[in-house]
């Protein structure tokens, strides 16, 4: 089955100093009691910083709110949209958000630079990052890259080159150019392969009637998660019960949208972001196909320490990280352990 993958911004890889000013909502870990009430019960405000715009890759959060899962946990969530100049980890460390989601590499670079961050989960168990090619000239294996021109996000070219070398590809025969924000380079024949988060870009290509092949980086030996859910260690210590409740609702939200993809896409397009110019057919395709990338053998959102260590080691090997990190110091699996207990689903 072919897969699409979610849209993601091209963001610079360099870590800049955290400069986000704490917002009123973000003070004290964004956990102040809200004035809003449901019946007689007060709800607690929680601000969550999205790493990109309000689109269907984040549909589990929006479904969780629409279906009342956060309210059941006593939470009034706010989901703040990201953008090309916004680093979610800065909003979390600066106090503007209690939690957020971030790219693997950006997160690990921030931690290496001394930021007090910890990974709790991930929206995508298998990163949607893929090399897309037209089926008339497909790229389906490492040897297919030789003699080809590939567009790839400029902040990941060094790691991608290292991956190709590790697969035995003669990279002197491969031309790698920065990828544009959409796959026009592939459609117009400027490149033979386009690297991107495939849900929006892949769905766009498919909806144009193009026959597209996908080679996921995971299948090239690049372990990765997508949209890693983060907070600070201090936040986790001071607001653990609240974070457990937030992630309980989030797990339910992603289980719900995986089971109801078209309805979930409609929530995003019609209710959450009606002025965002989203196409319902594209978002429906995204929701239907991303479910395979979100689902995990032990439950949605889960992280595996061994896989995370592989991610760290691959970034060290590529020179993206200057030295080794211990995944056990970077990831805390205990929160989702508490959420799931002995189950693998909260809605079954």
Automatic annotation (TrEMBL):
Superkingdom of the source?
Bacteria
Q: Where is the signal peptide?
A: 1-34
Q: Which Pfam families match?
A: NMT1
Hey, which pathway is this one from? Cofactor biosynthesis; thiamine diphosphate biosynthesis
Q: Work out whether the entry's keyword set contains DNA-binding.
A: no
Family affiliation? Belongs to the NMT1/THI5 family.
Biological role: Responsible for the formation of the pyrimidine heterocycle in the thiamine biosynthesis pathway. Catalyzes the formation of hydroxymethylpyrimidine phosphate (HMP-P) from histidine and pyridoxal phosphate (PLP). The protein uses PLP and the active site histidine to form HMP-P, generating an inactive enzyme. The enzyme can only undergo a single turnover, which suggests it is a suicide enzyme.
Q: What is this protein called?
A: Thiamine pyrimidine synthase
From which organism does this entry originate?
Antiquaquibacter soli
């Amino acid at each position: 089955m072919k897969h699409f993958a979610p849209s993601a911004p091209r963001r610079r890889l360099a870590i800049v100093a955290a400069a986000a000013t704490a917002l009123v909502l973000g003070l004290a870990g964004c956990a102040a009691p809200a004035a809003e009430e449901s019946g007689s019960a007060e709800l607690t405000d929680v601000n969550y910083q999205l790493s990109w715009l309000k689109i269907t890759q984040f549909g589990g959060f929006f479904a969780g709110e629409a279906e009342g899962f956060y309210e059941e946990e006593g939470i009034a969530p706010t989901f703040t949209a990201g953008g090309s100049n916004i680093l979610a980890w800065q909003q979390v460390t600066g106090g503007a958000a209690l939690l957020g989601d971030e790219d693997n590499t950006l997160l690990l670079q921030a931690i290496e630079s001394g930021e007090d961050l910890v990974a709790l989960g991930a929206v995508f168990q298998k990163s949607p990052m893929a090399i897309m090619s037209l089926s008339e000239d497909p790229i389906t294996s490492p040897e297919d890259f030789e003699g080809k021109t590939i567009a790839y996000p400029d902040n990941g070219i060094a790691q991608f080159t290292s991956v190709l070398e590790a697969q035995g590809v003669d990279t002197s025969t491969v031309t790698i150019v920065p990828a544009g924000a959409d796959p026009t380079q592939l459609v117009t024949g400027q490149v033979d392969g386009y690297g991107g988060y495939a849900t929006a870009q892949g769905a766009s290509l498919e909806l144009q009637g193009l026959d597209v092949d996908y080679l996921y980086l995971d299948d090239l030996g690049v372990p990765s998660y997508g949209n890693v859910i983060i907070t600070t260690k201090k936040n986790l210590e001071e607001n653990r019960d609240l974070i457990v409740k937030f992630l309980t609702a989030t797990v339910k939200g992603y289980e719900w949208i995986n089971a109801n993809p078209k309805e979930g896409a409609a929530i995003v397009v019609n209710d959450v972001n009606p002025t965002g110019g989203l196409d319902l057919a594209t978002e429906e395709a995204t929701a239907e196909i991303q479910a395979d990338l979100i689902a995990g053998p032990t439950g949605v959102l889960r992280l595996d320490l061994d896989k995370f260590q592989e991610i760290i080691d691959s970034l060290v090997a590529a020179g993206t990280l200057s030295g080794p990190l211990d995944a056990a110091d970077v990831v805390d699996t205990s929160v989702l352990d508490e959420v799931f207990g002995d189950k693998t689903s909260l809605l079954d």
